[in-house]
Every structure is written in structure tokens, then in C-alpha cells.
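WARN retry 2 of 3 for item q-0093 after timeout on previous attempt; input resubmitted unchanged.
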Amino acid sequence: MGTGLNSRKTRSALRTSASISLQMLLVLLGAWVTLWLLGKAWSVIWPVVIALLLTTLTWPPVRFLRRHKWPPALAASLVTLLFLVIAIGTLVGIAAPVGAKSGELADQVVAGIAELRDWAAGPPLNISDDQANEYLGTGVDKLQASVGSIATATLNGVGSVFNGLVNTILALFLMFFFLKDGPRFLPWLSRQLPGRLSIDAPAVAGRSWEALGSFVRSQALVGMIDAVLIGIGLFVLGVDLWLPLTVLTFVTAFVPIVGALFAGFVAVVITFVTNGWTDALIVLAIIIAVQQLEGNVFQPMVQSRGLGLHAGVVLLAVTLGSSLYGIIGALLAVPVAAMIAVFWNYLREQLSEPPLAVPEPQPQSVTAD
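OK item q-0093 returned
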């Protein structure tokens, strides 16, 4: 005969399952409310996020100056100005060589289009001039039919660029204040919170700041690896603008997905118009190989070591963030995962029992008979 279920144990298991389910629902509800509030305040939170990322990048020189008795305001002002000079110099260093060769590039683009048309006229496509003109006319008609939507998209793009400019300016001002007053934040936060929170919140905030700094440094290292590998490929192929393209690859590495696509597209197009189809395809192959190595090897390994996260966790975090929130999700996925890990580790430390002290064996006294 089979044994029957114990009614007391069954009721206890059901009560435990119901309690855990209710607690999980409350936690999920709290998380949803938090995300909803963050979404409503995103126009304010986004410049703060940018400012924090920039601050982690510029804090080491400020810390060096402050250790050498520089006033906080003067150290923050100097580093902020140097950051602006480097950023503007980088943009000029990319744009100036391209502008100097703009006329030559335009002529080579025209020659490339003519070469493409001649190739299309031969086998296997065998597109005649009349067919090419017909396709061109069809494209022009569709373009004219979609003028309204293009204008709307252009206006939206201009609005996005304007908002991005405003957010950037606001982030720079916030970065200056973070650099100047950052060390006073945690003591101030401790004074504002009651009871145990005055200890826990500053501790978690300090560890989160260290994790954010590790993320920015690891991202810079990954971008440097990408830029060096792609720059070597461009230099070996003899691409005229290899140095600006290398710098562009490093700068855009801080913008996940879109940055790599943009830098790769520019590199392939410039290689095509300057060196031809063969070198352009070689550059495309190099970029694809480097991006695959970055996404599956370099980035997970470097960030997992710097943040204390497993490489698989980093890869899954980027995938989940990009699928849920696009570019912004991909940018913030790894630091958010690192901060969650910081909070979880701190919570475990507070909830764990201290290890039991093992008493040392006492020497036995020897008594004489």
C-alpha cells in the first residue's frame, strides 16, 4: 500500500508557498513602481547618469591634484576644462583630415558609383542603362511620395539632437559639481538618513561608485583594443585616413551597438572610395572579426574581471538590456548588473552569521603520580 500525504505537512507547504509567492509579488510590484518612477523622471536622471560616467573617467586626476593640496574647486575646474579641450580636439582631429580630403573623396565617390554601374551592367546582373534609369526614377518617385514622413523624421532628429546637446551641457555642469563636492556626498548622506540606513546606504553607494569606475575603465580598455586592431588593419591596407578612423573607433566604443556600426560603416565606405572594392571587403571582414571578438571574448573577460561578474553574466546582461531598452539598455546593462551584484553581496554580508570560533585545544596538565 502506498503511503498517504500528511495533511499537516501539506498545509504547511501550501502556506509557505503562498507566503513566498505573495512576497515575490510585492517585490515585483515594488520593482515595477520604481521603474515607472524612473521612467517619469528620466529626463533628469539621464544627465545624472552621463555625468556620473564622465566623473568616473575624470576623477583620478582630480584626486591626484587634491592630494597635492589643490583647492577642490580649482582642481575640478582645471580637469573639466582639460576634458573639454581633449573632447573638442578629438572631434577636430577626426573632422579636419576628412574635411581636407572632402573634394578628393567626392570625386572618388563619383568614380565608385560609375564603377558600380559598370559592374551592374555586366554579368550576372546585366542591368542596362535604361533599366538603371528606370530604377532611379522609381526611387525618386518613392522619395517624393515620402517627403512628409522624411520631414517629420528630420524634425524629430533635430529635436533629439537639441535634447542631446542640452543633456550634454547639463551633464558637464553636474560633472564639475561631482568632481568638486563628490567626497562630501557620502558623509552628507549618512547625516540625512535615520538609524541603520545611515550606515548601509553610504556603504552600498561607495561600493557602487567603485563598480561604476571599474566599468568605465574596462570599457575604455575594450575600446582601445578595438581601435588598435582595426587601426593596424587600416594602416596595413594603406587607407589614407587610418588615424582618424582609429580614433573614431575608440570614441564610439563607449556607445554600444550603434557606435561600432557607425564607425565600421564609415571605415568601409572611406576604404571603398579610396582603395576600391577589395580593400573595403577586407576592412569589413576585419571589423566583423574584431566586433565578434569584442562582444564574445574581450568585453566579457575584461568587464568580468573588473566588476567581479562572470563573463556569461556580462554577456546575458548586455543581451537583455539591448532587447528591452535598445541602445540605452545596452549601455547601462553592465553597470546596473554590477550594482545589483554589489547590493546583493552587501545584503548577504549583513544577513550571514559570523563564522563560529573554533576553540583552541588546551594543553593537558601533567600530574605526577
